[in-house]
Design goal:
Layout lengths: L1 H7 L5 H14 L8 H23 L1 H7 L12 H22 L4 H17 L6 H17 L11 H27 L6 H22 L2 H10 L8 H20 L2 H12 L1 H9 L4 H17 L7
Helix pairs in contact: 2-3, 2-7, 2-13, 3-5, 3-6, 5-6, 6-7, 7-8, 8-9, 8-12, 8-13, 9-11, 11-12, 11-13, 12-14, 13-14
């Protein structure tokens, strides 16, 4: 029974929610030792898990025909229980984020709305891939909108916008790849090229930040190469996307493996962002990616 619920929740992806929330908190000046971060982590976990459970509840008719191995079609979890638990988690996540984490109620409400919209419309509407990307954008911005972050001179969500948008682009590209896995028909080449471009956006943005004039001054004047350490993370990200795109070219089941790699790679995307404020934590996020890939062997990520 427990494994069935973990499969519904796609629990192997949950740590990427933690890295998203932590990145959003740190990038706007939050202290990682602040206990209020735990409330935001718990809230993000409930919102993600509830959304994933509702995803299966909304897809039950489709899954009974096309994915009978899922927990609800197999009778391991009832439809009523999945709706009750999923909606309850969304409500609890909203309450914790707003009242305990002091996140902006508007951003948190928009996140819940995007989760529900995606759950109900991701099958009939191809444009729902953009809603999925917005879910992660809003998750990052929810963490950065906390009223506890008094050190910010401008709203936290505004500071986070460039990082959030690159994360959102990556998620859209990843979701497009996942949809290709489910389609038996040939996918238009331009769609494949566009999805791959979106996947590269976090690496491109990180490289542009890396080679701005201010960062290179210590290297050129003082021969201090410390500012170039994040290049290791950029190379790791590039290697990850390259491996995934090569698998995509093989088609069939290989696309599923590519999606698994890219899902685990969300932690690496957050590592690129966090490298701006904490290199040790950034490398910790990066080290999490292969661990998540191994975890996917126990609980599938999709």
């Amino acid at each position: 029974m427990l494994r069935a619920w973990l499969e519904l929740a796609r629990i192997s992806n949950l740590p990427t929610v933690w890295t998203n929330v932590t990145a959003g908190w740190l990038l706007v000046g939050g202290n990682i030792s602040n206990a209020h971060l735990l409330w935001l982590l718990l809230a993000g976990s409930l919102l993600y898990t509830g959304g994933m459970i509702l995803n299966d509840a909304a897809d039950v008719r489709f899954d009974r025909e096309h994915r009978p191995e899922r927990p609800i079609p197999r009778g391991l979890v009832s439809v009523a229980a999945s709706w009750s638990v999923g909606l309850g988690m969304l409500v609890a996540g909203w309450l914790l984020a707003v009242f305990m984490g002091e996140a902006c109620w508007g951003i948190t409400s928009a996140l819940v709305a995007c989760i529900l919209f995606y759950d109900f419309y991701h099958k009939p509407w191809p444009g729902a891939v953009w809603v999925m990307g917005m879910c992660r954008v809003l998750l990052l911005m929810m963490a950065g909108s906390s009223g506890l972050l008094e050190t910010c001179k401008v709203p936290g969500w505004l500071i986070l916008l460039p990082f959030a948008l690159t994360l959102g682009a990556y998620i859209v590209g990843l979701t497009m790849v996942a949809r290709m896995e489910a389609k038996s028909a040939q996918v238009a080449p331009w769609r494949i090229a566009f999805a791959r471009l979106l996947l590269w956006m976090p690496g491109i943005a990180a490289a542009l930040r890396m080679f701005d004039g201010q960062r290179l001054k210590p290297v050129m004047i003082l021969a201090d190469f410390t500012p170039l350490v994040p290049l290791v993370l950029i190379f790791a990200f590039a290697a990850m996307v390259t491996v995934a795109t090569r698998l995509m070219r093989q088609g069939g089941p290989a696309i599923g493996r590519a999606v698994g790699i890219l899902l685990a790679g969300i932690a690496l995307v957050d590592a690129l962002a966090v490298s701006e404020v904490s290199l040790p934590l950034a490398f910790g996020f990066a080290a999490l990616a292969p661990v998540l890939r191994l975890w996917q062997r126990w609980i599938a990520a999709t």
